[in-house]
Design goal:
The structure is a homotetramer. The first copy, chain A, has about 300 residues and is an alpha/beta fold. Helices cover about 30% and strands about 30% of the residues of chain A. The mean pLDDT of chain A is about 95.
Chain lengths: ~300, ~300, ~300, ~300
C-alpha cells in the first residue's frame, strides 16, 4: 500500500477535520484532568495533544509561543514579574525567560502530569526553563492562585487549552477571571490570551474572548499568526489599561529586541508585529463587533455560540 | 447518528488531508481535460473541485479572486487590456471588469465544459462577466494563444489549476511560458500568478514559481491571503519589469480604489495590501532563496521537489 | 489526484468505521422522522441511508431482503396474510408477494416520505410491489396499528432501522411489542426480525433481540447472511410458537421453493438456509446466552449495552 | 473531544476503507522486505500490520489460524510432516503443532525481522511454538527452499501476505509454485492457502487462486470464515490429489478432533467445518467459474484483475 496508514483526526469544527498522518504514538495516557498524547508526525515532528486537540507541534511551536509571549513582553518597557496560566509544555516560560529584565516567572498549570510528560518527551520545548531559578511552578487552579495572590504582575499570559465542557480551563475565559487579572496587573501591565482560530469561517471563540476582555479592559487588540499544525490562522488577544501595541512601530520593536539581546527569535520582530495586527478588510469587518460575553454563569465551550 | 456522514477528502500533501463535510453533490462529471465536481458544503457553500482539488468556494472565493486580480490591476495606473489564463469560474474576469479603464479582457481556458458547468451552477461567480461586451472567451491552450497573439497586455493573470502530471496546466508554469508573457506585456505591465500554499510546511510550489519568475522578470514579489477552503494561507506571485507593488502605500492604494469606484470590494484595500506582503520573520527567511527553476524540460508537478 | 475524493462514513461502532467512496448524491433530505439519503457508490450502486446508517444497497439488497423474508415464509406451509413493520424501500414487500399463497400483505411504515423517495429513486427495489392489489400500505406507527388490528397474520416481518434514541423504531424492539405480535400471529405463524451485526466483536444488538424474543416465544433462532454494504455479517432472528426452521432439511426447502415457483430467488435456497443457521464454535458460544431484555421501560439503543 | 482521535486506514479496495481506532502504536519499523507495525486497537487488541494490511488481530487471530490450519490437518488421517510458507507470527505453527502426529514442522518465512518482532510483541501468538523441538524455522525464499528440498510433506500451508507488486509474496501464488508444491506432497497430502476476501463485491483474488490451483490439483475447494479484523468474510482454498474435505461429515471431524485431543480449539469443529464450505446461492454462482490463471509470467497483484 502506498501512503500513510495511521491518521490523527483533528476536528476543527463539526464540518471540517484536519487529518495528520502519524508515524508513531510516543505517549498516551490520562491525567486527572485530561487525556494526553505525544504523537510523531512526519510533517510536524512531535505533537502534543490534550483532550484530542493539538496544543503544539515541534516544527511550528516557536510561532505559537513567540506570538503569545513577545507582543506583551515587548510592549512593556521592562517586564520583571510574569504570570502564566497553563503553559504545561514549558515553552511559554522559555520565551518569557529570554527577556533579561524578568526577575520572577510564575507558571500555574493545574496538571502536573502534563508538565511531567512534556519534560520527558519534549525537552526542546522547555529547554531548561523549568529549572531556571527565576521560575516558580505551581500545580493548582490558576484562577484560585491568582485570586489569592498578593503579588502584582507586569505581564499575564493565558496559555490554556480551549474551553471544553467539564474541561480544566473553561472558568479561565470568563469576565470574572479577567477582572481578577486586571486587579493583579501593574499599571502598565498587559495580558495576552490564546484565543482560538481566526479562520474566516470559525470566529466564534476569538470574538467572544475579545468581547469579554473589552468588558474589562479599555484597550483590547486581536492579532494572529499562521500555525500550520493548528490547521489555519490562530488568534490571540492582548489587553491592557494603558498600552496599545498597535501604536508601536516596527522600528521601535526591533530596537527593543536588540536592546534585550533577543536576536535568537525566529518568528517575532518588528515586521512580524506589524503583520500580525493587520487584518484584511473582510476580517476587520467580521471581527469588529459582536461576540458574546463569557461569564461564570454562561461560560463558553469550544466553538459553540 | 450525529454529525455529518459525507466528506470530501482534500489531500493537501502526502501527510495532511483536510476533510470537508458535504451535504450534496450538485454536479459531477469528466471533461476532456479533467474531472469536475460542484459540491455543497455546509460551511463553504458551493465548492468547485477540479481533478480532486478545491478551486474555489462560495464563502471565500472573493478572497481568492480579489487577491489574484487587484494587486496587479491597482498597481497599473490604467489597465486597458487584460489577459487571463484559465479562470473557468468567471470570477477572475468579474473582478477584472470592475476596473473602469478595462477595454478588453481576454480569457483563455482550455476547458469549455468547466466554463459551461460554472455558468450554470455558480452564476454568482461570473455574475454576468461572460456576457460583458469587453470579454472575449477562447477555449484553447492559453500558451499557444498568447504565443501567437499580436496583442500586448497591461495585466496578465494566471488563474490555473495546480500543475498535475498530464494535467492541462503544467506547461503554463515554466520559464518558457513566462518568457512569452513578458514579450506580450506592455512596458509597465504586470503579471500575477496563483502559486499554491504558503503554509510553512508546504512551500515547494510557491518557491519554484517565484524562482522561475525571477529568472524572467527583475521585480518579483510573493504575497498571500488566508483562504479557509484551501486549508490554509495561499500564495501568489506578482512580477513586472518596472513596477514594485510593495512600494505602493496603503493610502495610494485606497486613493486608486476610490478613483475607480471599487468600494464594492470586500477583501482588498490599502491595509489588506500591506498585510498581504508582510511575512513574519521565519517565512521571510524560508521564502528568501532556493526553489527550483521550472522549465518545459523539467516541469513542476504539485508539491514534488 | 488519484482515487475517490468523496466518502460516506458508516460508523459501525465507536472504534470502527466503514468508508464507502461515493460518486454522487442522488437525494438528500429530512422527513418528519429521520434524515434520508440516496447515494451512488461505484461498488454498491444506489445506497439508501436513513439517519446515517446504510439500509440497503443495489448490489446486495437481494441478500438482505431474501434473508429476512424467505425463512419464515418458507417455514410456513401456506402463508396467506403477512404483516411488515417498516420496509420503506418496498423490497421486503416484493419478496413477500413472490409467494403465490399470499392474499394480503400489509406494510406499515411510519414514514411516507421514505416510501415516496424510494419509489422514485429505487424503482427496482419495489418492482411494482406497492401497486400489487394484495398490498396495503399504511403510514402510521406499526405498533399502534398492530395492537388495534383485529386481523391475524401467518408471518410478521420486522424490517426496521436500528433502534436509535429518539428514532422512530426503538419501541418496536421491546418485549411488549413482541407480545403484541404473538397475539396477532396464527397458531403456526412466524416472525422474523432484522437484528443487527453478527460480527464477533459487535453482538450486543443481536443478543438483546434474541433474548427478548425468547421471553415471548418458545422457539427462537438466530441466523445470518453476509451483506458487504453493511460491513460484515448481518443477523436476523426468527421466532414462533410451533415451527423450528432449523428442523427443515435443505431438500424440503428446495421442494417448497420449487412448488411455489420461486426459482427466481438469487440468494435463498436449501443449501443457503442450512448455511445461514450454521455458526462456528466461538459464535455458538458467544450467542448462546446473555443479552439483555429490552422493554418499553428500558429500551435498547444501537450497540449500547 | 469525544470519540477516538487516532485511526488506522485499512484500504479494502479502491472504493472501500475500514477505519480502526487505535489507542497506541506498539512497534513500527521497516524490514528488508516490508513495513511492519504492531498497533493497539480498543476493539481488536494487538494488531499486526505488514505493508499497510492487517495480518491478524489478537481478538480473532484464532479464527484465521484455525481456519487455515485444521481443515487440511484434520482431512489428513495422520499428518507427520508439515510445511508452512510464511506464517511469521508463529500462530499457524502453533496450530499445526497441536496435532500429536506431527513429527516435523518446517516454516519458511523470508523475513526474520517479522518473526523477531512478533516473538517479542505477540507472545500469545506463537505460544512457544518457535521453541518446540519439532519446529524448524528458515528465513529464506519459501519457493526456493521447497524446490530444492528432498522432503515430502503431508500438509502444506500457505500463510502469506497478499501479493503486492514488488512485495515478498507474489511468486508464491502462481501455477509454477503450486506445481512445485504438488511434487512435494505425499500421495494423500493437502495444501491450504489463505486467499483473500470472499466479500461478494471483491472476489478477484479468491477466484484467481482457486482457478490456478485447479490447473494443478484435481480437487480444489473454497471455504471461508468471518474475520472482523479483516473487514469481512475471508477465503481459503484447499487442494489435493485424492482427498475432498467436503465429503467429511461433521461427525467424522468431531471424532478426529476428539481422538487427537484438540478440544482446546475455539473456532473449528464439525459444525464449523460444514458451515465453512456452505456458500449461499449467489456466492456459489459467483465462485463457480472464471478467475484468471496466475503464472510467473503474469502474476496477480492485490485485487487487480
Amino acid at each position: 500500500m502506498t501512503g500513510p496508514d495511521k491518521w490523527f483526526f483533528d476536528k476543527i469544527n463539526d464540518n471540517l477535520m484536519q487529518l495528520h498522518a502519524i508515524s508513531n504514538v510516543l505517549y498516551t495516557g490520562k491525567t486527572r484532568f485530561q487525556s494526553i498524547e505525544i504523537l510523531q508526525s512526519p510533517t510536524f515532528g512531535k505533537v502534543l495533544v490534550l483532550d484530542g486537540k493539538i496544543q503544539s507541534a515541534e516544527i511550528d511551536e516557536f510561532v505559537y509561543h513567540e506570538a503569545l509571549v513577545h507582543p506583551p513582553m515587548i510592549a512593556h518597557p521592562e517586564p520583571e514579574r510574569v504570570f502564566i496560566a497553563g503553559g504545561g509544555e514549558g515553552a511559554t516560560l522559555r520565551e518569557v525567560l529570554r527577556h533579561p529584565s524578568v526577575k520572577k516567572a510564575i507558571m500555574v498549570d493545574i496538571d502536573a502530569d502534563v508538565i511531567e510528560v512534556c519534560r520527558e518527551y519534549l525537552p526542546d520545548y522547555h529547554a531548561g526553563a523549568f529549572d531556571d531559578k527565576r521560575s516558580r511552578i505551581y500545580n493548582t487552579d490558576a484562577r484560585k492562585w491568582l485570586a489569592e495572590s498578593k503579588e502584582r504582575f507586569d505581564v499575564v499570559i493565558i496559555d490554556l487549552t480551549e474551553p471544553v465542557e467539564e474541561g480544566p480551563a473553561y472558568l479561565l475565559y470568563t469576565k470574572e477571571f479577567y477582572t481578577i487579572v486586571r486587579s493583579k496587573l501593574t499599571a502598565n501591565g498587559l495580558i495576552s490570551v490564546q484565543s482560538g482560530s481566526t479562520s474566516y469561517v470559525e470566529l466564534t471563540n476569538i470574538k467572544a474572548v475579545a468581547r469579554t476582555l473589552r468588558s474589562v479592559f479599555p484597550i483590547v487588540r486581536i492579532y494572529q499568526a499562521d500555525i500550520p499544525a493548528f490547521g489555519g490562522p490562530w488568534g490571540f488577544c492582548i489587553a491592557s489599561m494603558q498600552t496599545d501595541p498597535v501604536e508601536m512601530s516596527a522600528r521601535e520593536i526591533d530596537k527593543r529586541i536588540k536592546a534585550r539581546g533577543l536576536n535568537c527569535l525566529k518568528y517575532y520582530d518588528g515586521i512580524t508585529h506589524t503583520g500580525m495586527f493587520t487584518f484584511p478588510r473582510h476580517m476587520r469587518k467580521a471581527l469588529a463587533g459582536g461576540g458574546r460575553l463569557i461569564s461564570d454563569a454562561k461560560p463558553l465551550y469550544l466553538y459553540q455560540e
